[in-house]
Amino acid sequence: MSIDLNTNFGHVTITNEVIATVAGGAAVECYGIVGMASKNQIKDGLTEILRKENFARGVIVRQEEEETHIDMYIIVSYGTKISEVASNVQSQVKYTLNKTVGLSVDSVNIYVQGVRVSND
Amino acid sequence: MTIRTLDGATFAEMVLSGANHLTNNANMIDALNVFPVPDGDTGTNMNLSMTSGANEVRNVQADHVGEVAKSLAKGLLMGARGNSGVILSQLFRGFSKAIEDKETITTVDFAEAMNQGVKTAYKAVMKPVEGTILTVAKDSAEAAYKIAEQEEDIVVFMEEMINHAKSSLKRTPELLPVLKEVGVVDSGGQGLVTIYEGFLANLKGEELPATNEAGPTMNDMVNAEHHKLAQDYMSTDEIEFGYCTEFMVKFEQEKLSQHPYDEEAFRQDLSKLGDSLLVVSDEELIKVHVHAETPGDALTLGQRYGSLVNMKIENMREQHTSIVGEQKKEQPVKKEKADFAIVTVAMGSGIKEMFESLGATVVIEGGQTMNPSTQDITNAIEEAHAKKVIVLPNNKNIVMAAEQAAELADDHVVVVPTKTVPQGMSALLAFHPEQSIEDNQEGMKEAANSVKTGQLTYAVRDTQIDGMTIEKGNFMGILESSISSTHQDKLEAAKQLLRDMIDEEEDEILTILQGEDATSEEVEALESFLEENFEDLEVEVYKGNQPIYSFIFSVE
After folding, report:
1. Is A46 left (phi over 0), alpha (psi -120 to 50) or beta?
2. Per UniProt, what is one Pfam family of this protein (chain A) (predicted)?
3. Chains A, B: CB pairs < 8 Å
């Protein structure tokens, strides 16, 4: 599936992979998140942190009727307020997608798949 | 007086002063907020986080600096709000870890703790963005190391450290382009500097002014910078909740006995009305800020708990329109999408008008030798501005392009592959807006196939086709898609074509579309020919003004 935009000069199609990558990129710029995790933990290895080119495995873009929903699987840093980090990710992803893709997202659902405990 | 060591009580005082100073400047910091999301809440979020930290500190009453720092870190963590709040909590988490066993600290300890804080804070981010509160914290901590090497006096140490923090803050626009664009420093960084300033003021026993004298007032900032940027990303139409609503509720015992106040429940109720919600309450008052479409409902909700004080409601659409209006010319009015639209192709002004009078939404001029491209059709589909669009290409050479355009436009566009203008007209007449797009597609296709099309044109070169030899300049009658007649004389060719087309038993109506090069004498001649040979046939003539085809005949 993809997002289609019509402009005066023609037609723009944005695939879900692009949306996933943009959303993932916006999320990892957020404070308190140490990475994107795969949706399928068993299949892809336990809470393996995804590299940029694999963000799509941790970001699911769903179009249901007229609405766009995004599910994001993330790993957060130990010692942060998880609910707050998640809500920061939500607002940043929503904002970034709107700004760069012109896509208005109806919901951004966050699944915290892991906590990275750093040895300090 | 030289202060060489810092005890828990003094540090606690510093924290309270820092929190207080931040509270006083929260609005100004809000106004600076353009990154990461320009929603103007950094100051508010940092303030709520820091206040939570300060409250914890107030409750511990310890003289052990490690204990005080720990309670600050705990309070910050629990009360962390927003990106900046979370970062702040990390900075002081690392800070408190470094000094957790210390009863008192020196400048060296302080610098070490600051650096630990920065380390912890950087660990919790995958991709640190420089030019933010993180950079300011890092630069100040690095400077603190160097200062602490030579300076034992905590006050002097603090002063110099803050100077570095401020110059780091000034550099943030160089590191983060979005800040430079708007001409502001980073809001989170400003918040951190504000906290440090509060620390220092307490050490020196100074009272800080309520607002930073150097900083512009909130309103200046809001009007000048922040809103200007925000509106680049937003059109007036996109304001979902039109009224910025602010009010306070003064609790009344009588009402509370009926409606016990529950902040979370109240926030939930308000969140249904709009966004940008902020609810702060203490024993006496609730303060509410919400962008709502029905501000009255928000006020009514508040009134359940007491009386309303200090109400302010602003129409953000009006404000936004006036701001936008100054910069841009009027934006095109977005009209509601129609349910159905029909896009079709016509050659000739007369045929165009005819399609329009039959109810086509957009008619593209083109056809035979000037076929519209997929792009033209896509544009027309967009222009039609409807939830469902039916495309009638009216030419077999355009069917492909139309189908391509439909595919690009997703599933709300279908093509009824009409190959001729008469087919297109029949299809258009069979359109029923109250039926589904699938039923229409079916019905229109059927209608298109029930009509016979004959077209009269001339040969542009000598050719042999369909077993006929045609000389350049001869007229040819084309029945559907194959050549059925050819003659040197236009009228003769037309008559032959009509004879081939019309089945006297079945056909009832003949429509003649008069082309550009067809004269009215020729039309009259055809009419009398038809009367003589097919007396039961009803004949209608329209000026199609189409090029190339002298006549287009439609029989059904």
Report:
1. beta
2. Asp23
3. 89
Give the per-residue pLDDT at A46. 52
For chain A, the maximum distance between any two Cα atoms, rounded to a whole number of angstroms, is 55
A2-27 pLDDT, tens per residue? Answer: 777 777 788 888 888 888 889 988 88
pLDDT grade for B117, boundaries at 50, 70 and 90: very high
pLDDT of A56 strictly over 80? no
Helix axes B187-204 and B82-98, enclosed angle (nearest 10): 50
The torsion region of residue B129 among left (phi > 0), alpha (psi -120 to 50) and beta comes to beta
3-state helix, strand, coil in chain B (%, to 5): 55, 20, 30
Chain B residue numbers touching A33 (CB-CB < 8 A): 125-126
**Structural contact between residues B433 and B342, judged by C-beta atoms closer than 8 angstroms:** no
Interchain proximity A29–B129, CB inside 8 Å: yes
pTM (predicted TM-score): 0.50
Q: B48, B72, B76, B77: which is closest to B60 by C-alpha?
A: B72
A108 touches chain B (CB under 8 A): no
Answer whether B105's CB lies under 8 Å from B144's CB.
Answer: no
Q: What is the DSSP letter of B335?
A: P
One-character DSSP codes across B398-436: HHHHHHHHHHHTGGGEEE----SHHHHHHHHHT--TTS-
* B129 interaction partners in chain A (CB closer than 8 Å): 29
Gap between the Cα atoms of B9 and B2, Å rounded: 17
**In Å, how far are A86, B39, B221, B450, B483 from A82, measured between CA atoms?**
6, 21, 32, 67, 76
Residue B316: what are its φ and ψ, rounded to 5°? Answer: -75, -30
Q: Which of A58-67, B40-49, B61-70, B106-115 has the lowest mean pLDDT?
A: A58-67
User: Residue A18: which domain range?
Assistant: 2-116
Helices (H) and strands (E) in chain B, counts: 22, 16
B386 touches chain A (CB under 8 A): no
Q: Among A41-50, B69-78, B485-494, which is the least confidently predicted range? A: A41-50
DSSP B254: H
| b/e map B107-123, b = 16+ CB within 10 Å | bbbbbbbbbbbbbbbbb
Conformation bin of residue B369: beta by default, left when phi > 0, alpha when psi is -120 to 50: left
The number of distinct structural domains making up chain A is 1
Compute, in degrees rounded to 10, the torsion defined by CA atoms A49, A52, A55, A57: -60
CATH code of the domain in which A57 resides: 3.30.70.1350
Facing residues of B308 across strands?
Answer: B249
Helix axes B8-32, B65-79, angle to 10 degrees: 30
Tokens of residue B332, six digits:
């095109």
